[in-house]
Amino acid sequence: MLKPKLLAGKELPSWLPYALAGLGAILYLIQALIYAHTTVSSLDEGSYLIKGMYYLNGVYKPFEPYGPLTNKAPFAFLIPGLAEYIFGAGLRTGRYFSIFLGLLTVLGVWITARRWTGNWLAAGTVWVFALSPMIIKLHARAVSEVIIACILTWICVLVLDEESPLWQVILAAGLAAAAVFTRQNMVPILLFLILYVFWQHGKQKGIWAFASGAFFFIAFHLFYWPRVMTIWAPWLPESLTPFLNPFRIPTASVPIWDPNIDFWNRLNSFFQGIRYHFIPIVGSLFGLTLFPPRRDWKSAPAMRAVVFLAVSFFVLVIMHGWAAIASQYESYSCVFCFSNYLGFFDPLGILLFVILLAHAWNHVPNRAVQALLILLVAVIATGIGYSIFEFVGNGLLNLPLVPRFRSDGFGFIAIVDALTQGLGMQLVQVKRWVSSFLGFLIGAGILLAAFFIWKKRKESRFTLVLVNSFLITGFILSPLLHIGESRRDCNTDIIRDHENLGAYLASIIPLGSLVYWDGGNAYTPMIYVPQARIFPPQINDGYTFHIGGDPDVLYYFSHWNAELDARWRGEADIFIIEAKRYITWKDFLDPQHFQELPKPADSPSCNEGAELRIFQRLP
Predict the structure, then answer these.
(1) What's the pTM value of the predicted model, to 2 decimals?
(2) Domains of the chain by range and CATH?
(3) pLDDT digits (tens, 9 = 90+) for 113-162
(4) Which among 81, 162, 383, 563 has most CB atoms closer than 10 A?
(5) Residue 161 in contact with residue 299, Cβ under 8 Å?
(6) Half-sphere exposure of residue 483, counting CA atoms within 13 Å on the CB side?
(7) Is the peptide bond before 226 cis (omega within 30 degrees of 0)?
């Protein structure tokens, strides 16, 4: 175990790492509560909450034709829905429940890390969370990332040990199946868990893990059969699975959401993910690079645990990186969701890093590995710099640093002038080059600092000094690495505003009214109006809107088009319109046929034009 000592040689108090861990957890909680009350609600959050509420209250069922789109495995909706069912529907319930799951995640990572590494590194894992504003902000919203992170963490608590009781193995297999039925993209974790149990805990427990995991997996599918196949059909080649065509949306229509994201923005998304998840990603990557031969491991169980974590973590990272950045795997692909996707498995990366650090850091890497690590530091530093180009201000761009010979002598011109006028670059390109160069300079500075430290301490290995210097720098500067995402969205209390707005909507919308929603992409305010009837495809806003196609077929699959839109406009009793969208409704909502109800005093967002306008059809 690692036991830091004072310079005088005395051991630090045994209670200190516990106190530091507790302090980190308190800091995490304070930040999470602040973000919960200041972060604007998103489409995903509103979708999870209202669908979960509908499913638990029996208004709709998962995968129901003509109902809400069950585009994720049903537990993604049912788990937050259960919290709403018990504690009351609303944004407060959803977000406080997510914070609770986040704290369970931090606790589970601490328990597992302490088991393998001791109290100090376990306390360090808590501070990885506490110093990661983007991760905390993600945990403070009612989204599925924190649910999966919590499930994966407690799978590790149950089975990542030298010896686990049979009941823990069975429970872990059940949780792995539940993870798959929360997000279908977690399907590899069930397979990897079963293989790990066979390897670490023996044949008998492996058979139990396989049997229990298979039982829950099959039972979940049988319960929702056959419509559950709609979440698997997009994964499988149509040419090889024509029998799944009844569960696929026909190609006669064209989704309106068809993002055309260029290479440079995809690269930006990739390095944003590394920047926001620095220790899980970079620590694991360095650990994998320094992975020692089997003979150098302190214990075989630790090696097996690391292999399980490494395979699970990097397979999931590659899968989600490909889905978000490299492909267009479905009509609602989300390139800039890559960073959020990494939030699913941060606990695996953190545990992988600290267990490798404690048990098997390769102290004698060969020259090829040393060269690779130096290259990684340079590339990662440059890439992180590239990903913050949007925050390069005029003060930096206008620095007169570029030498120039003029008729009146030698002088300097501003960076932006040299690159835009001299090389014909656009401003966005200039910002990218400048921020990338700054990142490279910081990486070079860390390389030089590591070199001088190594020269001073001859017994150290340069590669290890470099890796440790880079990781410590990133760990300490984590809040700065989260620039852009860590800021508060609003200065107002978003939860309070939603509650006030929801109470107002519930008071003015008559029982059984059919509501047309164009109030923004987050359907969250409608959580507070359970007496209203809705058009379910609108929960996912324009992401389910198609051009052309058979309207009944699209509606069956919980999508919509212009024909359905026109039909619903003719049927709706109440129209909820976002203020900035009203210009497109002005002609339709004429005073002869509609009356505008008093405007709500509260808005669902602090963004300009987010206020709601409510119209009622006249008899």
Answers:
(1) 0.92
(2) 21-359 (no CATH), 367-481 (no CATH), 494-617 (3.40.50)
(3) 999 999 999 999 999 999 999 999 999 999 999 999 999 999 999 999 99
(4) 81
(5) no
(6) 12
(7) yes
